Amino acid sequence: MTQGEMEYFRTPFNIEDIPCETHVVVNYLTLGEDLVRFAADNSIDGIFIGIKKRSKVGKLAFGSTAQYVILEAPCPVVAVK
Predict the structure, then answer these.
(1) Which residues are CB-neighbours of 14 under 8 A, at least 6 positions away?
(2) N or C end of the chain: smaller count of CB under 10 Å?
(3) Taking the model in full, what pTM does it have?
(4) The domain that contains 60 carries what CATH number?
């Protein structure tokens, strides 16, 4: 992801004058593991995560990042549907 692409995600926050940081992390962890580790390493106060309903077969085949984060995060998690 380029710096310009990252700026695109910061734009709505900048317009409303809301402090915002973006980070690009590349490693071998799953997305859920990465989010939980980042939250723990950086003393994050809370996580907001989008969810969508999946069947049991869908969860089995693709996993559930949101479920992992909700169960393992070291801080409060707000799930938004």
Answers:
(1) 20
(2) C
(3) 0.73
(4) 3.40.50.620
